[in-house]
Model the fold of this input.
Amino acid sequence: MLFEHLGAEPQIDPTAVIAPTAVISGDVTIGPDCQILHGAVITSEGGPITLGASVIVMENALVRASATNPVHIGAHTLVGPMCSISGATIGSEVFLATGTRIFNGAHIDTGCEVRINAVVHLRTHLPEGTIVPIGWVAVGDPVQILPPAEHERIWQEQQELDFPGYVFGLDRETPDLLVQLTERYGRSLSRHADDRRLDG
Done:
C-alpha cells in the first residue's frame, strides 16, 4: 500500500518488489532490486527515507524517519523480521537480525552485524565491522557494548543521551512527561489524517 503523506509520494525503482501488505508512506525512495516483504512499514514522518540497491526489509519490520532524523539504508543491507529502525543511518552490507532495535541518531557503518533482539541506542555509533551480540545493548559514541544484565551501566549512558529531550524536545524531569509527550507526538501523528492512498 502506497500513501502520499505531507505532499510527498514514495519513489520506487521499477525493479523493486513491494509485497501487497507492506505500507510505504511519504518521502520514501526505494532503490533497484529491493525487496519489501509482507507487513513491513516504511513511513516518513517529515524526514526522508532512502534505501540503496538490493536492500531487503523483511516481514513486520518498521522503518521510520522524523523531521530531525532521516533514515538512510545502504546497499545490500538486510533488515530482519520485526526489526525497528527510527531515524538512523545504516551503511552497506549490514545485517540487522530479527527483533533488533535501532534508535534515533544512530550511525551503523559498513559491514556491522546487530544480532537477534540487540539494541543500538540513541546517537550511538557502530564503527565498521562491529558485532552486537544477541540481546546486548550498544550505547554511546565511542560505543560501549553491554550485556542486558548490566542495566545500571546502560541506564547511566542512556541518561546522558537524553532520549526524551533528543527525540521529543522534553525534559526528562517534567512532572507530567508522558502527558506532554503523548499530546505533542499525537498532534504530529494526526497529520496522517490527510494521507492519500496511491494504489487503490
Summary: Helices lie at 151-161, 163-168, 177-189.
